[in-house]
Task: structure prediction
Amino acid sequence: EPEVTQTPSHQVTQMGQEVILRCVPISNHLYFYWYRQILGQKVEFLVSFYNNEISEKSEIFDDQFSVERPDGSNFTLKIRSTKLEDSAMYFCASTQTVSGNTIYFGEGSWLTVV
Amino acid sequence: AQKITQTQPGMFVQEKEAVTLDCTYDTSDPSYGLFWYKQPSSGEMIFLIYQGSYDQQNATEGRYSLNFQKARKSANLVISASQLGDSAMYFCAMRASDQGGSEKLVFGKGTKLTVNP
Result:
């Protein structure tokens, strides 16, 4: 079973601090995504990434957020100055093609901002 | 705008029985994809099944099948022979355009399924 891996599984950070969430997508996948799920709420799209650039982003994905693929395998989400409302589960996902019939999610990174 | 509606906040089923989780969707795009995911209490999102809007047959994956009624814009998940391990949140999601355009998944609010022994 192919697997998207995410680290850390849980992080607690002080408000205003920078956080980097890491993801290793499935190796032959080309499209990468970040989603978030605030506790008890629905999953929300943040950003999609293809060919080393952002292909789509949501209103949530403001200037505090950035993504990059620094080394061809990792895919990171950076939050520059965390706010209390950034507390959520962040999911990385990947798929082989934009119309792929399987989009695999990682196990998520719980971010708690205090 | 694309929208997914899951009207059942919670469902209960007896072990070994079948259960249907409802999902209706709204989109003006002729090409779209529908996904179901399972989220156990541990939090991960597990892909279950996919249905493309042009697929002629309903999708099946083991004990999971998708009752796709295009005219009604519904894509209900059927779980046969429920097991205790099926207890989880289930999310229906839609990707609005399979041929480019928006790539994002739009999720419903989910249905919490509890399987009773």
In short: The first strand of chain A starts at residue 5 and ends at 7. Chain A touches chain B at residues 31, 33, 35, 41-45, 48, 55-56, 58, 89, 91, 93, 98-99, 101-108, 110 (CB under 8 Å). Chain A has a mean pLDDT of 93.
